[in-house]
Amino acid sequence: MTRFTDHFDLTLPLALAPMALASGGDLASACAQAGTLGLVGGGYGDLDWTSREYLIAVEAIGDDAAAMKRLGCGFISWKLAEDSNALNWLIDNHQPAAIMLSFGDPRPFSKQIIESGATLICQIHSLKDLPPAIEAGAKIIVAQGTEAGGHGATQNLGRGTFSFISETADWLATHAPETCLLGAGGIADGRGLAAALVLGADGVMMGSRFWATKECLANPQAKVIATQTDGDNTARSSVFDILRRKNWPESFDFRAIRNDLYRQWEDRIDVLRNNPQEGRAAYDDGVRQADFNRAHIGIGESAGMISNVPDAATLIGDIESEMKSALKQLNP
User: Are 211 and 226 within one domain?
Assistant: First the structure.
């Protein structure tokens, strides 16, 4: 169907976003077995978590050789610079089909990844991120817009997804025509996948929609709450990073549902940053109590398109049907 599907022998030009602590082994393996690219969310590079979840995926896939060639992992580049043990373990003990790097310079790790035989995927958030990613040897670029859930570029530095896909496609056509492009951010159904293809992408990467699946490691109650909200009730800021003690670079922040605790601090972020004890105490208690008026639910602007919590294989089938229907409308 596209160069992306050909590269991994996919049945649909779709990749699971490697959401930290959410895209575990069950979800990644289910996506790989259903014909899409399944990426375990290595995220912050915790060796115990990454090794456990990747082994769960490997065990679930078993002797399905085709699915194993669709299994990989993703990491946060700036955290790898602090501790690369999880990446080293993965490369030394397995043969991942792909490794994705996001949020930082991929070049310090790219040689090691490429020499392992894995396909290097680099996520970008602005056009200035493109040349370093191509220099690193990325075979696949993920252009993520600020509509995405969880971490991404701040609103003033990032891009809207669809214009970003188009500009990135044009840049790659001129400078690196052999490189595949995936769109990400606010894409949660087959209509969005079809639109990205029309704009020049080779496929899409979805996070929020797969976050609300049965296999995802997120709290089941949080998933239900997400199905009852919409994109207007999400916001991007540093509030939850401060509350969670996550010291992210200033160019990135976090999109989540605007719950009661978020609203308390959203207009007083500097106050929270300078004196976080009160907010952190409320957040920590919310996490202990699974009270999502205080604990965070990281999800994107596509929340309004998420109305149920299916298993991953069913969701992928629905996305494929929606994509085909949307493309047929364009070319009846």
Answer: no
